[in-house]
Design a protein that fits this description.
single chain; about 180 residues; mainly alpha; Rna Polymerase Sigma Factor, Chain: A; 2 domains; 9 helices; globular
């Protein structure tokens, strides 16, 4: 691959991993501002060390490794705060977050279960909205509803799905 193509692929990988990387960091640092700061630090390190990334290997695993060390450094910097986790607890939390992230089907399975629990009319709305070409405007026109009202309904359904996933995760179904 040409250097320019490699750089473009690296940038694409970097952009695509942002939501998962932020979620991973946030699972280790429950403060959103701190997590955002660490994410920026991780992005900078990844960019500076882009030549060290071996093309064809697991990009997100490489990103998690860098993030783990950045979060660990953040914890060390604040070692005097009595609310900071010790190293063993941090390592256990990081390992658990990495296992969860490496099994994306686990979360999708929870979503599938929660979708099945929805009333049929709500499930149909979600399926139609997220099918290829599904648009709120077109759905609203077809159903004779305003786009705003349909958006609110979809938002409520998504919130319901999120609550269901959280409930199932806290109920022990999520891998530990």
């Amino acid at each position: 691959m040409k250097p320019k193509d490699q750089q473009e692929q690296f940038v694409n990988n970097l952009i695509n991993c942002q939501p998962a990387l932020y979620a991973y960091i946030l699972s280790l640092l429950p403060n959103r501002d701190e997590a955002g700061d660490v994410l920026q630090d991780v992005n900078l390190v990844m960019w500076r060390r882009s030549d060290e990334y071996a093309e064809g290997t697991n990009f997100i695993a490489w990103a998690y490794k860098i993030a783990r060390f950045k979060v660990l450094a953040r914890h060390r910097d604040r070692h005097r705060d009595r609310h900071i986790f010790d190293q063993r607890l941090f390592a256990a939390l990081a390992d658990q977050a990495e296992r969860r992230a490496s099994d994306p089907r686990g979360l999708a399975s929870l979503l599938d279960d929660c979708l099945e629990e929805l009333p049929a009319n709500q499930r149909e709305l979600i399926e139609e909205r997220y099918s290829p070409g599904g648009s709120v405007g077109e759905m609203a026109r077809r159903l004779g509803r305003s786009a705003a009202a349909l958006s609110v309904a979809l938002s409520r359904i998504r919130n319901s799905l999120l609550q269901c996933i959280h409930r199932k995760m806290s109920g022990g179904r999520w891998p530990r």
